Amino acid sequence: MKEINTLKIGIPNIFEKLKCNDKKYLQMEGGYLNVNDINETNILSFLSIIEKRSIEILSQFYKQ
């Protein structure tokens, strides 16, 4: 459980740094996500958004 609590604290910071708080990303998961309401039920959705955004950033980097 300690690891999940650590993720709950870290996810908003990662969201901000990767600029995942855009409607585009939250709508991809049904539009019901709020970065201030991370819990055991929706944590995988947040991690999925972080993964998708990371792939976008890496793809842009390797295209150059």
Describe this structure in words.
It is a single chain. The chain has one domain (2-63). It is 69% helix and 0% strand. The chain has three helices and no strands. It has helices spanning 2-18, 23-28, 43-63. α1 packs across α3 (43-63). The termini are far apart.
Write the layout of secondary structure elements.
Blueprint: H1 2-18, H2 23-28, H3 43-63
Compact description:
The protein has 64 residues and is mainly α.
What does the main sheet amount to?
A: none
The run of helices and strands is: HHH
> Averaged pLDDT, please?
87
Low-confidence stretches: none
Class by alpha and beta content: mainly alpha
In terms of DSSP E residues, the strand content is: under 5%
Radius of gyration: 12 Å
Number of spatially distinct domains: 1
Quaternary structure type:
single chain
Shape: globular
- DSSP summary, beta strand count: 0
Give me the number of helical elements. 3
CA(first)-CA(last) distance? 41 Å
- Percent helix, as a range, is 55-70%
